[in-house]
Structures are given as structure tokens and as C-alpha cells.
UniProtKB/TrEMBL annotation:
Pfam families: ABC_membrane, ABC_tran. CDD domains: ABC_6TM_exporters (cd07346). Part of an ABC transporter complex. Transmembrane domains (TMD) form a pore in the inner membrane and the ATP-binding domain (NBD) is responsible for energy generation. The chain crosses the membrane at residues 55-76, 96-116, 171-194, 200-219, 284-303. It is a multi-pass membrane protein. Gene3D superfamilies: ABC transporter type 1, transmembrane domain, P-loop containing nucleotide triphosphate hydrolases. Belongs to the ABC transporter superfamily. Residues 377-616 form the ABC transporter domain. Residues 56-343 form the ABC transmembrane type-1 domain. This is ABC transporter ATP-binding protein. The keyword Heme does not apply. Keywords: ATP-binding, Membrane, Nucleotide-binding, Transmembrane, Transmembrane helix. The keyword Cell inner membrane does not apply. It comes from Jiella endophytica.
Length: 636
């Protein structure tokens, strides 16, 4: 029953709410998420505002908790005085309301308050609010361009998303609850002690000043190192995940020792940063211990002297000592919390730098959906160097007619993949433009552009999901029959029914990838082909689409590939020239420029680069650039 009661509070905040950005502010446009504030305080504030109500509740509960603590100590003083003035027989009748009040506050008031603040923190805020921060951060990262992910470690980014949710949530709740109840307690203590003897209040004011000095002068050092160690932790995770994900290369090259050194480097940095921060922590703890000693003995001496002078009652001494002892205890715990606050602040600062970075490749303000008609593609004086000074693609122009099947040929590194990646707008051009059916791809939405192009690449990465989800990846709403039909046409039906993953799921439900079944390269490629068949986009890009298939499967699938290409504009890249020789037109690329074009026969007759590549093809594969150059150098 308690469970059901508590569950009601769990839906107060939606863990997945996001601000889709209305585009009204002129910075961001519809279709893109509103960016998160890039300044740390504004970032924290941005999230705090999303849970205003519950957080104000937490603030009130925090204040009341501090208040109750102070009231209880005052009550203890009154009780001591009452004991001094009464006999055992008359105590209850003389001081009934005091005793009843104290019992009520201790038994009911305090428990009710703690329950309310627990519900607020644990049910309303913790899971949902923390998750909302993670979710919004994750989605901002997903808006980043392909190149963003190429330049960072997946593990590091994942850790940032995890950490930022935890750190921001903890930071806000600690301030509102712990910190605020501490401040209320101090304020009430100063007031209560001031009423007993103003000199005690003065000692406390000096103590608070000392505390503020520590926070301003000693804590920034901890914060600085906190930030550095958070970054160091991310670096270590990034490196560890990188080693684990590339474990095959590590094993094949027997380079585990090298990897150890690489990862250890990260750990050394982490340990160094942590040591610096822990040194600063010890420094702070020592100063706090001295300051608290001064505060407790100061108040104690003044209270006892007041009692000697007859201006302070025994109850007053009890209240004063009780309050300062509690303050001492709280301040140790508070230092721990402030330390946590500072560390969390550092973590947020560190994550914010990555998470709030604006995506470099976004839809134009007036982007419209691409209206694919016949699938005409036009590269107009395209230049692209991956942001470097030169090279890769230079002033390239190419016209592909609707429905034309074009083969891109060239040595390794000639720029073939780059050319199709530019068509997909995975990168923005550095010069020229690319048009699809007369529409500049820079002016249409990325979503509609990629929906119009089906791609099968060389290294098919399957997601760690079921076979069905993998095939329906480009068309999640697809019917089961269509998924099966696509699999049949990709010749994947002969192996899918017999699949069984370690958890016992079979066929289309079997999971692939990590902790799932491992497919061969050729099987993976057939899934990828099924995925594209199902997507049925008007433009097809086949980048080494059949490189992992053996000749038998390739022959079986060839017919389907031909059918898949029917009525579509196709750009195919293949090192095995025999697989693309039958295309309408072959474009030969060299060093980012078109050097020859024509049909297979035309090009053979021309006896240029294509003809030499064709002749050199040995065992079905192309020589690498360096081998080819070495050969031509030897021939000269
Ligand atoms: N992300 C990147 N950043 C910088 N340079 C890159 C990047 N990707 C590729 N390049 C460079 O661009 C050039 C063209 O690469 P690309 O992958 O387009 O060649 P390719 O013809 O497809 O080669 P292959 O046949 O080996 O796949 C190469 O010199 C490569 O080093």
C-alpha cells in the first residue's frame, strides 16, 4: 500500500520533458532543440526552473528542518530550568504544555517533516528530475554532426551525460535542503543566543565570518581540482572504453601492454588531480576544526561566566552548549556537503563545456523538406578539405541523371566515400553546392535529405537490438510482412530463422552485437541490404555494399540488387571493379578530381587509369595507392 501511495508522487515531474525550441528567439529554429545555456550557473538555473514547485517545497522543508532543530535545543533549556524550579510531583502539572509541546515536536512534527521532505526528494525529484537532465543533455549531443563523434570518445560522452544528471540534481537538492537548513539553523542559533547574552551571538557572527572566509579563499582550490579530476575521470573512461571496443585490434596486434600504458597515463593524471584536491580538503578540514574549537569554547566560557554573574540560567547554559555542539557536528557534515557541492559544480562545469556546444551542422533557418522527384544529382564546383588547407576534393563537378547508375572508381583515398558523405550532408561543403532535383541540399532539412537516400556501407554496424529492429531501422513503422520480404530479397532469410541468442530469443527477435549473437561480415551486410530495401529511398548509395559477401551469395543477391536499383539513381563504390563494370557510367576519381568517365568498354578503350586499375586487379582486389605508385614508379 505504501508503495502505491508513494508511486503517485513519482509522476509529478515528467522524466522526458524537453523544450523543443519554438524558433521565436531567432537563434534557433523549429525542428532543432533549443540549446542549453553554456554558462554553468545559467545551466543549473535552467533546470531548477523546470521543477520550480517541488524545489520550493524542498526549500520550505529544509528551512523547517533547521528550525525544528533549534527549537528542540531551546526546549531542552526550558526543560532544564523547569526541572530546577519543580519537584518530581509538580513537574508535569506545572509544565504540562512545555512537555506536551516538546513531545509533539519530537514525535510527530519532526517525523512528518522528514517524511514530507523524503517524498519530495526521493519520489518527486530524484528519479524524474535527474533523468530529465540526462535526457535533455543526451538529445543535445545527438544533434551534433557526424564529425563531432569522430573527434571524441563515445565512452567519454556517455559518462558526461550520466555525470551531468547526477551532479546537477545533487547540487540543486543539496543547496535547497542541506545547505538551506544549515543556514536557517545558524540564523536561529544567533538569534536565540543573542537573546541570552549578546556576546555569544558575537562569537557566532565571528565564526560565520571565518566560515565565509574559508569558502571564499580555500574552497576555490578544491573546486578547480574537482573540475580537473572530473575531466580526468572522463578521459580514463574514454580510454578504457576505447580499448574494450577495439579489443580485436588490441589482441591481434598483441598490444595490451601498449594499451596498459595508454590507459595508465590517464590513471596517473587522475590520481595526481585527485591528490591535489584531497590535499586541499585536509587543509580546509584543519582550519574548520580550529575555528569550531574557538566557537564552542568561546560560547561555553561566556555562558558559564553569565551563570556565575547570575544573568544566565542553567537552562540558558544548556541551550547554548547544546546549540554550539550541534553546530560543530553540523559544520563537519556541512563541510562534507560543501565539498560535494564544489565537486559537483566542477563536474557540471566540465560537462557543460561539451554538452552545450552548438551543433556545427544545422538546418538552414528556412529549411524545407526535400521533395525528391526523379533523383537527379548535381555536384557543382564542390570543394572540401576536411577543414584542412587543401586536398581531398577540389572544384569537382558532376551531373548524375535521374535513374542513372553510376560507379565511382579510384584508388584507396581518392575521395569516393567523402563524395557520398557530402551528398548525405554529413559534412558541410567548403565550396560549391550539391543539388538533388534542383534543390540545394544545404537548404533542405537533414531529416528529409537522409530519408531520400538509402546507404549500404562497407562496414555495416548493427545496433545492439533485435534483427527485426535492425532491419526496420530506417522505417520503424514497417509491417512484419515487409520486414520479412526485405530479408528474403536480401537473401537473409536463409540464416535468420536459425538464429538464437544467448538469452534464447530466436529468429527476428534474436539480438545481435554485444551480448547477442555475432553475425559474419556477409550476414551483417545482408541485414544492411534488407534495411535499405525496406527503406525504399529514391537514391541509393552502395559503398562496397557487397564486399563482405562470397561470390555465391553475391551472385544470389545480385539479381535482387538489380531489382533494388530499378527506377533509382544509384552511386556505387566498389574496389572489385567487376561488380560495378555493368553500371551506366563509371566515374574515375584520382586525388579528389574526376580524371575519366564513361562505360566500362569506353574506359578500357581509353587505356587510362581505369584500364590500368582493371588490368592490375588481382584476385578481385585493387592494389593500394602506395603499391600502385611503387609499381608505376618501377615501370617508368
Ligand atoms: N574524417 C576525416 N578527417 C580528415 N580527413 C579524412 C577524414 N576521412 C577521410 N579523410 C581523408 O580524405 C581522403 C579521402 O578519403 P575517402 O575515405 O573519401 O577515400 P576513398 O576513396 O573512399 O578511400 P577507400 O577506397 O579506401 O575507402 C583521404 O586522404 C583521407 O585520409
Amino acid at each position: 500500500m505504501m508503495d502505491r501511495f508513494l508511486q503517485r508522487f513519482e509522476n509529478v515531474l515528467d522524466p522526458f520533458e524537453d523544450d523543443a525550441g519554438s524558433g521565436e528567439d531567432g537563434v534557433y529554429r523549429t525542428g532543432h532543440l533549443r540549446p542549453l545555456p553554456a554558462e554553468t550557473n545559467a545551466f543549473i538555473w535552467h533546470f531548477a526552473l523546470q521543477a520550480k514547485g517541488p524545489l520550493i517545497g524542498l526549500l520550505i522543508a529544509g528551512g523547517l528542518t533547521g528550525g525544528i532543530e533549534a527549537v528542540l535545543f531551546t526546549g531542552v533549556g526550558w526543560l532544564v530550568d523547569a526541572l530546577g524550579h519543580s519537584t518530581p510531583e509538580t513537574l508535569v502539572s506545572d509544565h504540562f504544555w512545555l512537555i506536551a509541546g516538546l513531545l509533539f515536536v519530537t514525535l510527530i512534527g519532526r517525523a512528518a517533516l522528514l517524511f514530507a521532505s523524503s517524498v519530495l526528494e526521493e519520489q518527486v525529484i530524484s528519479p524524474s528530475f535527474y533523468n530529465r537532465i540526462r535526457w535533455q543533455s543526451y538529445r543535445r549531443l545527438m544533434e551534433q554532426a557526424y564529425s563531432f563523434f569522430q573527434n571524441d570518445f563515445g565512452g567519454r560522452l556517455a559518462q558526461k551525460v550520466q555525470q551531468v544528471g547526477m551532479a546537477t540534481g545533487d547540487f540543486i537538492t543539496t543547496i535547497l535542503q542541506t545547505f538551506w537548513s544549515f543556514v536557517t539553523f545558524i540564523f536561529l542559533t544567533v538569534t536565540i543566543l543573542g537573546a541570552i547574552d549578546w556576546r555569544m551571538a558575537l562569537v557566532l557572527v565571528l565564526w560565520v565570518a571565518g566560515y565565509v572566509w574559508i569558502v571564499r579563499n580555500l574552497l576555490p582550490k578544491i573546486r578547480e581540482y574537482g573540475r580537473a579530476s572530473a575531466d580526468a575521470r572522463s578521459i580514463v573512461s574514454g580510454r578504457v572504453v576505447d580499448s574494450f571496443t577495439n579489443i580485436l585490434s588490441v589482441k591481434l596486434f598483441d598490444s595490451s601492454r601498449q594499451e596498459d600504458a595508454f590507459v595508465k597515463d590517464g590513471f596517473v593524471y587522475l590520481v595526481d588531480m585527485t591528490r591535489r584536491s584531497t590535499r586541499a580538503i585536509t587543509e580546509v578540514r584543519t582550519v574548520v576544526a580550529l575555528l569550531n574549537g574557538f566557537m564552542m569554547s568561546g560560547v561555553g566560557v561566556i555562558a558559564v561566566m553569565g551563570w556565575q554573574a547570575g544573568s544566565v540560567t542553567a537552562g540558558g547554559v544548556a541551550t547554548a552548549l547544546g546549540l554550539v555542539l550541534r553546530l560543530n557536528q553540523m559544520s563537519g557534515w556541512m563541510m562534507f556537503n560543501i565539498n560535494g557541492l564544489v565537486r559537483n559544480y566542477g563536474t557540471i562545469q566540465d560537462a557543460v563545456a561539451t554538452i552545450t556546444r552548438l551543433p556545427t551542422l544545422i538546418d538552414a533557418p528556412d529549411a524545407r523538406p526535400l521533395v525528391p522527384a526523379k533523383g537527379a544529382i548535381r555536384y557543382e564546383d564542390v570543394t572540401f578539405h576536411y577543414g584542412k588547407g587543401g586536398g581531398v576534393i577540389d572544384h569537382l563537378s558532376l551531373d548524375i541523371r535521374p535513374g542513372e547508375k553510376v560507379g565511382l572508381v579510384g584508388r584507396s583515398g581518392a575521395g569516393k566515400t567523402t563524395l557520398v558523405n557530402l551528398l548525405l550532408r554529413l559534412y558541410d561543403l567548403e565550396g560549391g553546392r550539391i543539388l538533388i532535383d534542383g534543390q540545394d541540399i544545404a537548404g533542405v532539412t537533414q531529416h528529409s535529405l537522409r530519408a531520400a537516400i538509402g546507404v549500404v556501407t562497407q562496414d555495416t554496424s548493427l545496433l545492439h537490438r533485435s534483427i527485426r529492429d535492425n532491419i526496420a531501422f530506417g522505417k520503424p513503422e514497417a509491417e512484419e510482412d515487409d520486414v520479412v520480404l526485405a530479408a528474403e530479397r536480401a537473401n537473409a532469410e536463409d540464416f535468420i530463422p536459425s538464429l538464437r541468442d544467448p538469452k534464447g530469443r530466436t529468429g527476428y527477435d534474436a539480438h545481435v552485437g554485444e551480448r547477442g549473437i555475432k553475425l559474419s561480415g556477409g550476414q551483417r551486410q545482408r541485414i544492411a541490404i534488407a534495411r535499405v530495401l525496406l527503406k525504399n529511398a529514391p537514391i541509393l548509395v552502395l559503398d562496397e555494399a557487397t564486399s563482405a559477401l562470397d561470390s555465391e551469395v553475391e551472385a544470389a543477391i545480385q539479381e535482387n540488387l538489380v531489382r533494388m536499383m530499378e527506377g533509382k539513381t544509384v552511386i556505387a563504390i566498389a574496389h572489385r571493379l567487376s561488380t560495378i563494370a555493368a553500371m551506366d557510367r563509371l566515374i574515375v576519381l584520382d586525388k579528389g578530381a574526376i580524371v575519366e568517365e564513361g562505360s566500362h568498354e569506353d574506359l578500357l578503350a581509353k587505356n587510362g587509369l581505369y584500364a590500368s586499375l582493371w588490368r592490375r586487379q588481382s584476385g578481385g582486389f585493387l592494389f593500394t595507392e602506395s603499391a600502385a605508385e611503387a609499381e608505376s614508379a618501377a615501370a617508368e
